[in-house]
Every structure is written in structure tokens, then in C-alpha cells.
Fold this protein.
Amino acid sequence: MSQQLIQGNEACARGALAAGCTFFAGYPISPSSEIAELLARELPPRGSVFIQMEDEIASMGAVLGASLGGRRAMTATSGPGFTLMQEHLGYASLAEIPCVVVDVMRGGPSTGLPTSPAQGDVMQARWGSHGDRATIALAPGNVQEVYSLTIEAFRLAETLRTPVAVLYDEVIGHMREGVVLHEPTPEELGRRTAPRAAFSPTFLPYEPDENGVAMLPDFGRGYRFHVTGLMHDERGYPTSDHVKVAELLERLERKVEPAVAAVPPERYRLEDASVVLVAYGIVARTARAAVDLLRREGIRAGLLRTRLLWPLPAPALTEVSSSAELVVVAEMNRGQWALEVERLAGGKTVLAPYLKAGGSVITAEELAGHVRRLAREGVAVS
Amino acid sequence: MTAAQVAAAAPSELQAPPVSGNLVVAGVGGQGVILASNLISQVLLDAGYDVKKSEVHGMSQRGGTVVSHVRFGPEVHSVMLEPGSADWIVAFEWEEGLRALSYLKPDGVALVSTEQRIPPAAMLDHRERALAYPGLGDVPPGVVAVDTFAVAGDAAVGAPVVAQTVLLGALSTLLPFPSEAWQSAIGTWVPPKALTANLTAFERGRASGARVAAGESGVVAGVSPNGSAAHESRSSRAEAGGIATAPEGAVERLVPAVHIERSWCKGCDICVAVCPEKCLVLDKFDVAVFAHPQRCTGCGLCAWLCPDLAIDVGLVRDGGAGGRSS
Amino acid sequence: MTLESLKKTPTKGPPPRGESPATAGGTTLPEPPPSAEKRLLRHGMMPHMLCPGCGHGIVFEAMLRALASRYEQLDDVAFVAGIGCSSRVVGYIDACTLHTTHGRPLTFATGLKLARPELKVVVVTGDGDGLSIGGNHLIHAARRNVDLTCVLFNNEIYGMTGGQLAPTTIPGAYTSTSPQGNAESPFDAARLVEAAGATYVARAQSYRTREFEDLFLRALDHKGFSFVEVMTDCTEYFGRTNRLGNGADLLFSQARVEPAIDADLAGRSTLKEVRSTPVRPVLEMGVLHESSRPTLEESMKLSGAGS
């Protein structure tokens, strides 16, 4: 299959179309607007819906309404818009409504650094909405991956009945690379489970299967049921039964775990590595170059590149923290994911994160220099 | 101190002031739980204790649970009680009293009103005719069931909330503070127009507390220990006694009929007020009753304006047991 | 309730009834059949959670009656609501019902309608939900002329949260956050929505339920954004705080909205002075605006639009 030179944001829109997205609602914001612009061109001729809403809150509301109507629905935004979407993301988690939200990260807080790259929304994706929200967040590291992980985001959202976020930074969003736009297989597309039998008054819309996922019939196809943001029982009726509520929250957390196996990390020169760089998104690319630099200098470096931020890819992180002498989490923020890795490592290894917030990308030389300095100071590294 | 020990002890023997103590005051919205716990706190404060009081009330305006914890001692820090740490429970409603029992110490005393405020949700299952509400049959250990209305007598007529002051009277016999301290607190917290009735209820409660102390049964008045039958609830049809019988052997003709879903009716009074023929009344449980069917013209105003969707109006064949037998 | 018992209990079905009313003589009083609208209820959730005398309950039943005159079963009608007392009513309707977030039901409804143009979508909102936190969405839904029917229950107060000031509270009224009397002026919701581009705008009262039913049915039939504001009473907070009497008193006060009384009101400095007189300003009732232009779905050429 031939390669096409396309932009990250375009790859995202192409991925959404390939994944069967037929509904997009959004609000303009840099550096994500190209996704909306491309879908505004592509969706209506296919009989699909593109709508620019009055704000990001409304965009997310429309996406959820459309999803309940049976559409594969998405929106795309950047940090400030992602903030406005948080209440509805929490709603979607609890009411279990599939949808995909793309956040092309820029510097923050507030209006911050529009169109400068950052990885500042990692924790917002996890804890931005109130309450204990279980969540899935993917982090593509190149344009090809933006395409494939957008498709994967739809698959996870639809099969697990949950919102899925795709987080990448401005550099990836605006970068152009040769990309193969493969047609996804039915397995790669996935689909939400809907009841086959005719509607019965005893239908329980929130009765989970063995994987903790309940069936979701479309609105207006003969199944009459209630969807609410209140804690609810299997009927979807509001409940304040403490036991039921605790069970529900526990199930929602368990439900997203399959994402860990579905989106495995990439391991680069890890076999004998005593220094492990851990990175995601754009930083993983320079980290890979840093590994090569360090190897040439005789430092046994390797890279664990995660493509999944939430739920935490715990097995891989535990593995490197038990085998490596030094783990360096490199990210473009003041230390969001690094603290999670430190928590998981539980003191088993030396952690020396390399953090950079301010709008420019971490370079390979910076990162290699950080490791060299640590080596000089005698922090691990043989 | 167990209920039996209370029964064995005369108030005069309870004179040594406790060093510290914990109380739970429970009930439902509108029963004056907060006011009562304020009042108890006032007595304790006046007696020189450090007092802390918590309030938990959410949907109380709609008859939801209201619980107040009162802690006193030389110095109190934490305001919420652990289960099993209350010396006394004062509950204005039967089920709320039972619900609060987990807070009671093994030797604690719970003064629980036999008043039943059955929440609508407890009456959902009409097919089974089941009422998810505890009967008065088994009085758990530690519980002194008090028929507050019976004890209050005429003091509570027209002001049912006053009946609960009886429990404060009963409580006062378990605590070593003079009657005047309680009366003064009542004077501080109760609105002037209700003062006399509350003082009367308090005195009657105090006297009934003495009767408990003097060794009468755990149930203070009115209700036999297994006497749930004596208690009617909002869901019972006991009110239908006032309804006239349809004329016997009438020829087939259509007459208006009204169905009132008792468990849905919240007693707002709108149907009673709007009925042009004054066919409807509120019974003593504040539930609308079709009291005068012979006057009904079937206009349907009551059904149109019922906020609870509790009323159906229709025409049925005249002649006794027509209509529906459910 | 356990999961097993939930499975055994149908969530829908014919209305259950309490015990049959035996008379003193042991014979049975004739019972009317359940009203037609009762078949559209989710009986498992009744009785509803509204306060005694709440005007929302009256409007809710009137909505159901109108729907029952049109639909045997609500398979093709979806109900979307926000947060608040009014919005809770959709949970009692045996249909596809969506109880969303505070102020945002119109955004969900817009998405749902565009996703499934063949569905009839009814939005239930309140004055706080629809005009305060959700005011922006209301004017935009009207501007877009999405084919939705929006019913706004206006009780001039926040009931669910305990009787706070709303953007519809009349000047001078006491609420828990305007203890000195409301210093602000209210929105005229119907005129606001009309100005924003709605193609059907009506106003009704909970007291005149038949008129509301007609206006609501016309709204359902209308193609484009139809808006029905219905004035209802909050007995527990608005009524109580302003000492206006019980549910029946408030309801009757709606019946006496006359210019003379309104003029009299204008002369009073506080609501507490008027006590027994009605408090609402004179509002025009009935269809306030009706026009025709393409709906959003038609302009987007979505299949199923306009059907």
C-alpha cells in the first residue's frame, strides 16, 4: 500500500473516517482545528453529520446525544476546550456512552501557549472530571500512529462502552509524515453490543456481562430505557444504595483494564538496558535518538515508549523498574506521568525524570546530557 | 444502662452527672430533629459541657432522613459518632430509630417514637402488597418505644410536631439536669406561640419517663408490644370506612368514579380545593379520599390538577361491584 | 434490591394499584380504569420525587395526557432533560429518556436529533437549567432551528438545591439567596427565544392544563425549534418563602392574573406585604410566535429530516 504525506491532524480525521465515525461536533481551537476542518469537508457528502457547536461543553453534549442515537461520534479540541469537556466526560464514563475525544495539547495553564507543544493534559485526562472516573487515554507518537490509534480509540470506546481520549501534542498534530492509510478489519473496528431479542419490560440496560460491559441499544429502536448521570442500578434508575454505588464505580474501573493489553508499549534496545528512558508522544522520538547516542558512548540505554497513558500500563512499568538501575521519565510538563511511574516503581530503582515545560521539545542531546550527568555523578549506570 | 435498668431506676438515682456522653437524634424532615438537638445541646452547654453537634439532612424538605449527633464532655473534638458509641438515641420516627440503632452502645437506651412516616418508596410493590417498613412487633433490645401521640394527648392536637417533645421529657429523666434547665432551653428554642404546648408535652413525657423508670413495660403508652395491627399506615385502606356504598341493584347506567392511588398521593390538598362538589377530603394521614362519591359529576378537575398523578376519573357501570377488582 | 429481584420486577407495565377500596359494608366501590396517560409511565419509579403540590407534577401529567392522545407507546419519541426538579420528570416516562448534565440538555438533544432525524425529540428543562447555566445553548438551539420541542418549566426559583434565586425570579421576591428581596430583573424566556430565532413560541400555565396540552401538541407538530414556557409553582420554596400559601393557593393565584392586581402589586415595596394576592406579573399566554423556515436537518440535507 502506498504512503501518503499527511499531517498529524489529518491522519486523525482520516483515522476517524476509516473507523466509521459519522458524527463530529466541535468548536474551533488551535492546534486541533484542522481535524474539524477536514471532517467538515468529508462528513456531509457521506450523509454524515458535522456540526460546529457554540462551545466545547455543547460539542461534547452533542457527541454524547449522537452516540446514544447509534452514531460513532467524536470531537477534537485542545487544553482549554478539554477543560470545558470534563463534566461531560465524567457523565459519559458514568452513563457509559462511547465516544472519542482528541486533545491536541498545547502549553498551559489557561490560554497559555497556543500552538506551542506540551504534554500538560496528562493528569487532566485522568483526573480532570470530579469523582473517581475510570478512563482510557492513548498517546500516539507519530503520524502513522495517530491514524491507527484513532481507529483503536473508536474500537475501545465502542466495545468497552466508555469515552476514550487521544492525546498528542502540537508538533505531532502539525507534522507531516508518510502514512499508510490501511482499511481497518472488522476486528480492528469493533462494535458495541446491542441486545438481539425483542424489547421486554424486564430489560436491564446496565446489567454488565462477564467483562463488566453492558449492552447498549440505540435510542428509538424499540428499546425504552433511562440514561442518567445519577448513580444508578442495573435498571438505570437512580439509586443511593452505598453498596450498589461502590460496585458500580469498581466495575467501571475494571472495565477499562483491557486497554492495557490492547495497546502495548514499544520496547527499544531494552534487552540489556541499565538506563531506561520512558517517554510518550513526541518526546519518545527524541528519546529514541538519545538511546542511540548513549549506546555509542557505551551507556546501556533503552527506551520504553508507551502509547497508553491511562489506565497505567503497569506491567511494563513494573518490569523496567525492577530490571533497570536508572529510569528516566521524560515529558513536556512539570512532572505528571513521572510521579505515577515513581509511585509504581515503589523505590525499586533510581528515578530521575527529565521535565521540560515551556513550549519547546526535549531534544535528544538534552536528554542524553541528563543521563551523562547522572552517570558522572555516579548515579547508577555501569 | 439497658432499657430494663432504666425501668428499674428512679430518676432520682441518676443524679451523678456523666463526664461525657454521646447522643443521636434522628427523624425525618419536618419533625423538628434539628430544633430538638439544638435544645439538648443548649441544656448541656448550660450545664457547663463542651458540646459539638452535627447535622445530616439532604432531602429533608421532602421527608428525607435527618440525623444529628450530639457529643458532650469536658472537651470534645470530633463531631461525628462511631457506630456503637451512643449512650442515648432519641428518634422521632420508628424506622429512623431502628436505622440509628447501630450507633447505640450495648448498654445504651434508645427512646423511639412509634410514629410512622412511611416513605412513598417503601410502598412500591403493590402486586405483593408488601410494605418495606419494619413493624412495631419486635421491639429490639435497648429500645423504649414511646407512643408520643398518646402521651402528648391534647398538647399535640393541631400541631403533630409537638408530640415529639414527649421524647425530650423522657430523655430528661435519663439525664441529671433539673426540669428547669430543660424548660429554659425550650423557651429559648421553641417559637413563643408553641411554647405552652411544648412545655405540656415535655412534662407529660417526663412523667411517662418516670413510668418507664417505675417498671412499666418497654412500650410507654398506647401500643402493645406486638401491636402493629393497632397501627394504620398511609397505605392501609382503613379510611374507606367513610365511603358510602354504591346503591344496590341499580339499573345499568354510567356513573362517575374516582380512583386515588394512596401511595402516590402526597396530600397537597389541591384536589380537595379544586373539586367544585367538595367530594374529596384529606384523611388523617394527609391522603386524599373520595369521601362523597354521590356528589361527583366526573368533571375530572381533580385528576387534571393532581401533581402526583394519583387520581383517575372515569365513568363506570353503576350497580355495586362493577369496575375493577384488582 | 438484588439483581435477581430486579429481573423479576418488570420496570414497565400496566399501572399497579393499591388495595381495592372496601367500604364499611364490605362491598366494592366502582373503580374507573386507569387514565390513558398512565400507560406511558414507568411504574417502577413512581411515586415521583416532587414535593406536595408541586406545579411540575401537574404539567408533567398534562404532557403525558397530550402524548397519550397521540402515541400508543413512546418508541419514536425521546426525552432529554437537564438537572433540576423539572428535569427529573423524564425519568418517569416509559420512553428513551436521557437525564443529562445541568443546563446542557439541548446540546445532547441536538446531537441526538442530528444523529437520528426521524426521532421526535422533546427537551424538558427548567428556568435555572435552561435560562441560567444553559442559556447559551437555548439561544443557539433556537437560532439553528433544530427540530426539537423544548418545554421550559418556569417556577421562578431553584427548587432542587433549596430555593435559590433564578434568572426568572420576579423583582422583590424572597429566596434563600435573596433574603432582602430580589434586586434583579427576570428574563422573559419566550421573547428571548423568539428573538433568537425559534419558529414556534408559546406560553402556558400549570393551572390551565387543557390549554397547555393544546400548545404542547402544536409544538410537537411544529417543524423546527418549538418552545413552550409553562409557568408552574414551587410550593415548598417559592410559596413558603414568600408566604403565598399552599399548592392550591398558588394555583388559584394563577387564575387571578389581572392587570388591576398587577398594578396593585407595583405599588408594594415587598412581596411579604401582599401575602394573599397573586404575585405574578401579567404575562401573555397562548401562541406568541409562529413562523416557518428550513430546519437545521433540512438545511444539512440529512436523510429522515422532516419526516
